[in-house]
Amino acid sequence: MSRRLLAFNPETEGWQRESLRVRPAAASVDGSSVVGESEEMEHAVKLLELTSEQDLDRFFSAVISSVSRSVRKRIDPRTEQNLRVLLRGAARQLIPLLDHAARGFGASGAADLGGRFGHAVGPMFGLELEGLSPEDQEFETAKNFVRFVGEAAAKAANATAAPPDAAARLAFAAAAKRYAPGLSSAPPAKPRSNVGAVF
User: CB within 10 Å: which end of the chain, N or C, has fewer?
Assistant: First the structure.
């Protein structure tokens, strides 16, 4: 079991939610959840345990399947392929930060680690991580990335009229605007078919 889940204490959960600023779960256009809370946590744990490009692809497949069940629509396969290319690019920016956080940014202490991780991730994902432990910062960031991927998948599933590459770019940009404003400062480039390894 993940070290992050072992630290979960339901008795203090309400107090932490009240006193710490954490973003709410993702919602689709009609206000309902794109990815259920328990699935969101499972996907976040998987994201934090990635060790290979294949793990990343399985992570995307799991989130996209959850979204397809939730919105009762499948993404056009060509749109999904283009969207995955864009999402891998976003993962390339996030995964090294999670990896550094897991390794403790070298010899720095926990307080310094929390500050450095929050400072690096906050602007990219629009998160307020102040007051959270380094492990909780990591987990909240992973959950937000799941929301981002879920929202992008939901938008792509509903973009039936646009060409696949345009549908993927529009879905990515809309999800980034909501969950990763640091990624949406420039429009995403047209996807390329050969993508380098993330790891």
Answer: N
